[in-house]
């Protein structure tokens, strides 16, 4: 005897199953580099965000709703980012986009973000284009800007190490990311009286390539090679640039902004090259006396034991925890505008990073903190700017 279910009864049964109801989850999107030369950055950011969301899900979600992340690969190419963003917003109906990697890809995302009124939250970039005054309505950042990172480097090089502004050079990626870093760096040098860009050695390489030889040749052929070179690039080309420079006898101090992915830069350079400074926008992942870092490592061990703690993953985790905090405080239906208002309403708060964070309608960047680290024996260790003079070569 065959058992037949009446269509109406089947429909009613499906609607009664919570896991099938769309309202049972909140969907977030990410377009990032999962292929190409910066794939490790995109993968680490994805893993960190997922880990932070999973913490909420293991506790039953937020207001009974599970948090889900949809991730699309753009290969760090702006031409692939725009279609991804349209799919995330129009087909997947994401509540917000979180943790996208890169400045050129962020620039490609902005038109649709503005058009559709979707939150672009905690992208992995410190570019000034995402930090307008007054703030862009649909862009809210976690991290310090490239201007703040490079400003900290320049301050230390001039005040602590005694360098003249013209003794600091730049190696940057030839795109919006590299340009953003250089603009921030030149602004920092202007604070010390440098007002002519011709006094600054600035060399570049093409995005998503390892073609750094011409840039290095320009440095080696300079009348006075810089005593310090600030790098605004990806980990593989920066590693190749440093390695070839050392082989050529260049003794300049190399410094890099956080986007390089310090852990991946250290791995690419290996244990034989030391003395490279990398600024970070999160604390050291081994600093377990900080509550959030301890929770990150505990969650990593519990939910993703195959992964290794790293700076980029921790940043993604912080972004997810910050987003979750705002969601928990929502007293109305979680819609796009309501989420922005909840983030702006956080004010000054403690997330467990050892520094207070702050968000408001007038402030769309939660943190201004910069933590310097130094490459030693194949790994990055905490560093004090007061010691930078010992790393800079003597003036010729």
Structure description:
The protein folds into two domains: 10-143 and 287-365, 3-Layer(aba) Sandwich (Rossmann fold); 146-280 and 372-390, Rossmann fold, CATH 3.40.50.2300. By secondary structure, it is of the alpha/beta class. The longest helix is centred in the N-terminal third of the chain and has 20 residues, at 39-58. The model is unreliable at 1-22 (pLDDT under 50). The protein has a seven-stranded mixed sheet with strand order 7-6-8-9-10-13-14, sandwiched between helices. 40% of the residues lie in helices and 16% in strands. Helix 5 (146-160) packs parallel to helix 6. The protein starts with 6 loop residues before the first helix and ends in a 14-residue tail after the last strand. It has twelve helices and 14 strands. Strand 11 (347-349) and strand 12 form a beta hairpin.
């Amino acid at each position: 005897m065959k058992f037949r279910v009446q269509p109406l009864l089947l429909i009613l049964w499906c609607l009664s199953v919570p896991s099938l109801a769309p309202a049972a989850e909140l969907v977030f999107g990410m377009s990032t580099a999962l292929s190409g030369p910066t794939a490790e950055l995109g993968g680490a950011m994805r893993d960190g965000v997922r880990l932070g969301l999973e913490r909420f899900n293991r506790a039953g979600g937020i207001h009974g709703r599970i948090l889900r992340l949809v991730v699309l690969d753009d290969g760090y190419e702006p031409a692939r980012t725009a279609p991804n963003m349209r799919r995330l917003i129009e087909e997947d109906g994401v509540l917000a986009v979180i943790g996208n990697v890169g400045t050129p890809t962020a620039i490609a995302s902005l038109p649709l973000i503005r058009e559709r009124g979707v939150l672009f939250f905690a992208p992995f970039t410190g570019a000034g284009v995402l930090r307008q005054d007054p703030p862009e309505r649909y862009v809210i950042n976690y991290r310090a800007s490239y201007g703040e990172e490079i400003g900290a480097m320049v301050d230390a090089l001039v005040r602590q190490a005694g360098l003249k502004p013209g003794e600091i050079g730049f190696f940057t990626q030839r795109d919006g990311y590299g340009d953003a870093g250089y603009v921030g760096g030149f602004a920092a040098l202007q604070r010390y009286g440098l007002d002519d860009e011709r006094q600054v050695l600035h060399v570049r390489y093409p995005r998503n390539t390892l073609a750094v030889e011409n840039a290095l040749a320009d440095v080696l052929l300079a009348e006075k090679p810089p005593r310090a070179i600030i790098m605004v690039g990806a980990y593989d080309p920066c590693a190749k640039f440093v390695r070839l420079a050392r082989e050529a006898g260049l003794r300049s101090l190399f410094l890099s902004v956080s986007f390089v992915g310090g852990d991946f830069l250290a791995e690419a350079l290996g244990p034989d090259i030391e003395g490279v400074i990398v600024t970070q926008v999160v604390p050291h992942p081994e600093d377990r006396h900080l509550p959030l870092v301890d929770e990150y490592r505990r969650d990593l061990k519990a939910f993703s034991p195959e992964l290794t703690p790293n700076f980029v993953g921790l940043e993604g985790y912080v972004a997810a925890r910050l987003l979750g905090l705002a969601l928990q405080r929502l007293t109305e239906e979680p819609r796009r505008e309501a989420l922005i208002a909840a983030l702006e309403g956080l004010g000054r708060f403690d997330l467990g990073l050892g520094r207070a964070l702050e968000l408001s309608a007038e402030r769309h960047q939660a943190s201004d903190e910069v933590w310097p680290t130094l490459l030693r024996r194949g790994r990055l260790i905490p560093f004090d700017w007061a010691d930078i003079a010992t790393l800079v070569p003597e003036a010729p």
